[in-house]
Amino acid sequence: MGMNPQTSLATHRRSFLKGVTAGALGVAGSHWLSSPLMAAAKPQYRGPNVILIRFGGGTRPAEAVNPDPNKNFAPYFYNVLAKRGTLFKNMMIDSFTPTVGVDTSHGQGTMYLLTGKYEKLKGVSHDPDFKKKHPAVDLQLFDDRFESKVPNFFEYFRKSFDVPSHQSLIINSEDRNNEEFYTYSLHAGWGIDYKCEALSLYRYKTWLLRQKIAEGKWKDKELEKKKQELAKLEKIDFRREEAQGQIPELKRFWERWRAYYGDTGFVNPRGDRLLTELSIRAMKEIRPKLMMINFQDCDYVHWGIASQYTRAVAIMDEGLKQIVAACDADEEYRDNTIFVVVPDCGRDNNSLCDVPFQHHFNTKAAHEIFCLIAGPKRFVAQGKLIKSAVDQIQVASTVGQLMGFKSEHAENTVLAPAFA
Ligand SMILES: [Zn+2]
After folding, report:
1. How far is the CA of 345 from the centre of ligand 1 (A)?
2. Which partner for 154 in 196, 232, 305, 378 could form a disulfide, CB atoms 3.0-4.6 Å apart?
3. In angstroms, what CA-CA distances link 92 with 12, 69, 344, 393?
4. Mean pLDDT of the chain
């Protein structure tokens, strides 16, 4: 019986490790797992790309899957893209174990999508080990920042296939720095070696400040001030592992962004339009195979003005249209990309509340969302509308099935009606 390639690589690795002193191995630590030698043991990824669009923060079916054109603010999503896939109009948050009680909010919902599991999530500052691990960090800042205990779909993906971190990508908004923490989980055996990368205006500002310091733009006292500013900015991502800034692929991305938009941060699009722009540029320049886009402007309705919400749904719908068009115009993405469109949470439907459209009171409407899986007909069932109830934590294992990786800690019942 011949030796299979994996066995011979493992043997090779063992004999190679024998030659390394214990001290050197200790320094290298977990990075052995991501060394080129080990990566070669994993297969190349040849399946379809998946782009998950978080249709958030907090969107009700009433404004997106409503057949009444006067009440539907996502006409592209509902009338055009839905024809290219399967629409689950009755997705719920936590329909399986409603007694456990989960929070219907943005960070939590995003985590449930990523991991396929409901966890009672507490801000990282509640972790008794946190202070030990990050003594320099101001705990107050981290109350709404979550770290998952189970792996997310990016980690499953990168553990199964030889995919560089920048080709599994989260696009984050400008003012939710807590979302910088979704790149990897705390689960033993997964975690940082399989993390994804994130693009956001926060990352750009950090890169730019570091870059300008290196360019010698400031001197003496001003330079000291800028260095402190950078340290403060970088501390927001307390898990940041690159001491010298971001990885080369992202540095090059920001160099081109700077050349186009300049230094001010005011010329580029803002809000969810910025996320659309980042996503389309990322597709052209970084070529992600798995990407999650965290739209969020609907949430400005917390201030109580309904038109801000419906307008944000419409802007998101326009962004979705542009992203799909960019994909259709690209030879490698066209006919080889699946879109998953799903909100992080719903919104209250009681218009008699003092401030309508909230989502923190655990009402049924805050649990009610929807999900569209759209893509080429060899992967996805076309033009189907599914009325039976499905659950938000089924999304992660469905992404896994579409891309061919196992998600062993996620809810394992997939959204089967969507498969071709
Ligand atoms: Zn909110």
Report:
1. 9
2. 196
3. 49, 24, 11, 9
4. 86
Ligand 1 centre from 306 Cα, in Å? Answer: 13
Between the CA of 308 and the centroid of ligand 1 the distance, in Å, is 13
Closest to 349 in 3D by CA, of 338, 363, 362: 363
Please give the Cα distance from 23 to 25 (Å, whole number). Answer: 5
Exposure class string for 359-383: b at 16+ Cβ within 10 A, else e:
beeebebbbbbbbbbbbbeebbbee
CA of 106 to the centre of ligand 1 (A): 6
What secondary structure letter does DSSP report for 380? B
Centre of ligand 1 to C-alpha 48, Å, is: 32
Going along the chain from its start, the domains and CATH numbers come out as 55-418 (3.40.720.10)
Distance CA 126, CA 123 (A): 6
State the distance from the centre of ligand 1 to the C-alpha of 142, rounded, in angstroms.
17
Q: Which residues make up the environment of ion ligand 1, defined by Cβ < 5 Å?
A: 299
Rounded mean pLDDT of 175-204? 86
Nearest Cα to Cα of residue 118 among 88, 156, 142, 149:
149
For the full predicted model, state whether its pTM sits above 0.90: no
Q: How far is the CA of 127 from the centre of ligand 1 (A)?
A: 24
Residue 75: alpha-carbon gap to chain centroid: 24
Torsion over CA of 231, 233, 235 and 239, rounded to 10 degrees?
-120
pLDDT digits (tens, 9 = 90+) for 312-334: 999 999 999 999 999 999 999 99
230 CA to centre of ligand 1 in angstroms:
29
Cα 104 to middle of ligand 1, angstroms:
9
pLDDT at residue 210 is higher than 80: yes
From the list 314, 274, 295, 272, the residue with the least C-alpha distance to 106 is 295
